[in-house]
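lol ok so funny story. i was supposed to be doing the assay writeup but got distracted and ended up predicting the structure for this chain instead. priorities right. anyway since i did it might as well share w the group, maybe its usefull for someone
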Amino acid sequence: MKYFLITTLLVSQALFSQNKLKPLIQDKLSPAASVDINAYIGEKLHASYNNRILAQDAHRLVQPFTQHDEHSCWQSEFWGKWFTSAVLAYNYHPTPQLIDKLKNTAQELMATQTPEGYIGNYAPESRLKAWDIWGRKYVMLGLISYYDISNDKKALNAAAKEADFLIKELNDKNALIVKMGNHRGMAASSVLEPICQLYTRTGNKKYLDFAEEIVRQWETPDGPQLISKASVPVGKRFPKPTENWYGWDQGQKAYEMMSCYEGLLELYRITGKETYKKAAEQTWQSIADTEINIAGSGAAMEAWFSGKEIQHVPIAHFQETCVTVTWIKFNQQLLRLTGESKYADAIEWAYYNALLGAMRLDGSDWAKYTPLSGQRLQGSEQCGMGLNCCNASGPRGLFTIPLTTVMTSDEGLNVNFYIDGDYQATTPKKNTIIVKQDTDYPASGKIDISLEMKKAENMTLALRIPSWNEKSTVLVNNQPIENVESGDYLKINRNWKNGDKISIEFEMEGKLHSIGQHPVNVAITRGPVVLTRDERLLGPGLEAVITPVKNKNGSITLTPKKSNNPDIWMIFIAQFLPEAYTEYGAEPVEVELCDYASAGNTMTTYPFFKVWMPQLVDPRN
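and the output, tada:
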């Protein structure tokens, strides 16, 4: 079955024609014009499209906006999260069924707008408090995204009226946005992102002024200080709350913090102020260095906590899916802005592990938390809405991949990810090119790429060589390319023509990772995939202490095994030494490992699984 991103380029082009203002800073990478994704990822997109996006009762998500009696909950976020997911899905696979659903629910939501401009569910005496502004942010993001695909100015006007009323309320009440709501104002002030989008689409300077005022307030003593504390590790910027973990004092809230930086990057595009970009980049580096675990995500109890160094121990409410999705979206912002491969590396790692691991096999549900050992359990319903924040957010991360697999630049094309499918793009000279990928990556490291183009053109094709890769070969028309370096793009400039072929092969060696002391724990990765023990697979019980048999170079041999279980994507057999008390130890035993996304992931039961394996403490060491 084919899926096409035929509207994405049109949307991108329409934004420049619809926008009153062209951003001062242009992205280095832009999405392909159409996409046809096959195989495993195509199946996941298909499942989510049908069983989560289309299956959602959108009417129920609008219902809270018809009543203004809320004081503390966050029902108003669900419509915008689901709607922006659905717009991404529509950009990927535009169908009459989905556009009708989007149109109907957008109109239903706009019909709840009060004469003063409010779209929300909070009682008048509680407005601006708790999650009210956060909910308004998602209303605006949803309405703006609908305007972008439909050119319906009623949606843009409704979003503008929502923003106008927010600005008026803050002014009339002499209220600081950073003192409103939770998490040192990060939840409320993350409204920066749609405010910047409104400025570029309307040209109304009051939105730019409001955006700059939000950032000014960040740096006050009451604010989250997202610029001045950018060099401080994200888990240590403020003292931990002693009373209400989810209250205003919580300055480490992961999801809300990254949402603010997404808005700051939008403001950077508008203003060109390098301090904004630098703050986002420094924070990204801090998150990567101190928080992101082996599955590509992080945070516990929804907050940063310097968790990378203790990821091997049991951790409460670990790795919220909303955090995973926002980490992917934050990286996507930086990737298209800078074109740097490290952001694509981070997206790939999070996507194949933490994100796909959180998604139910049929795409109908998402786990709220995904530990590195234990079980994948369903999240609780929130706010009486029939779903929780992560059910609504999961597809927002899933449907980023069609937008970023193959992208265009001023120099040519960037192949960021290796996913079986066809990718149509426009070259620097405005010629049409189709990049066809034939691969089962990351099950193997072999990728064959062929080009279809009516006119030959001299341009640069940039192939991402992942940072985890240590040995690879790249051939163009069977001729080897020299100086292939990991952790960067291999830029091949030549006169590309119809029928040109590129062959890539990454060495998919089993790598061992160690962490902790007394005991040391080990984990295994293969390419960008974390391998995991699962109680459904062959081997001793998960509680057994087993030691991987190393090769001379420190790697572990992994033998692929065809999976007879439709719930499991990849299975590998490896040799381990079991704990023994004989004089010369025991003989190696075979142990099966599966990909992290499949571990413990079923439609009925909740099998236990384990990523980090504790090792025996040896007093001689």
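Confidence is low (pLDDT under 50) at residues 1-17. The chain has 16 helices and 22 strands.
back to the writeup now i swear
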